[in-house]
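Anyone opening a protein record will find just a pair of labelled lines. The record below illustrates this layout.
***
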Amino acid sequence: MLLVVALLGLTTLGLLVLNTAIAVDSLKATQLRADNAARAQEVQRLEQLVVSGSTPAAVAAAAVAAGLVPAGVAGYLVLGAEGTTTLRGTPEPAPQPPAPEPAPAPAPAPAPGSAPAPAAAVPGGN
């Protein structure tokens, strides 16, 4: 009889440990699903940024900001069977980009030993 009670007690304890392990794994799985959903939203946000940044207007604006200019008319070299080349078209050089505006000159530093300018009086101040 004592053996039956001991087996029931050990079985109950074993089921409790098993149930706890399953609950921990379930919590981990729930957390991983939430992390996966958050990462999927981040991927969608980044894909949207890529799509919006790869429109022709955005690419053109980025090229202008980088100082690139449209290419002129291109010439093509056609290779012959004997290794000869033939130029097709009349290539033209790309136009020069506009010169950048010069930076404003920095303000001159005060001379050493000169007194600082007096502070303006603040109305209502002491």
User: Anything to note?
Assistant: DSSP finds two helices and two strands in the chain. The two ends are 96 Å apart (CA to CA).
